[in-house]
Amino acid sequence: KLQVPSREPVRTASAPSIPVPSQTGGPVPLARPATSAAAPVRTASNTAARKAPLPSPPAAAGSLMWPVEGKILSTYGPKANGLHNDGINIAADMGAPVRAAQSGVVAYSGNELKGYGNLLLVRHENGWMTAYAHNSKLLVQRGDTVARGQTIALAGNSGSVVTPQVHFEVRQGAKAIDPKTVIGR
Could you say which residues of the chain have pLDDT below 70? Predict the structure, then answer.
């Protein structure tokens, strides 16, 4: 598995994934293949845990802003190729401004995670995180505080894509959330 890079040499894996530090500090892959394994047995304890409500997003639901304007190329969820998109891919003009969906602190800024090209991870309040991949240029660095709507990168086709786009993810802790459920129109 890949991990948020340190200053050690880059390691590669067979399938790209973006690890996001979890509440316990371990990596959490953002993209993973779907499996056909049998469903887990539901017990009272794990069923109750699944039904526990998520903490509120960094602001009221629907108030995260779109990071870039464009047509959705790939939606959240399982795909025919057996992979699962933990975010959405939005078509963008090369060099279009990519904006922070909400205020936060940059947790990662770099291109060491194979497949995602120039990637930003922004940590928000209540354990929320947003990811912005395939940028042509990163305009902020790890530790920078960013404001909602601030231009943080320029759209591009870095990583494993050929057309300019932004891969955008929203997470609550380790759980990927369909961005369209917490983003404004």
Answer: 1-62, 185
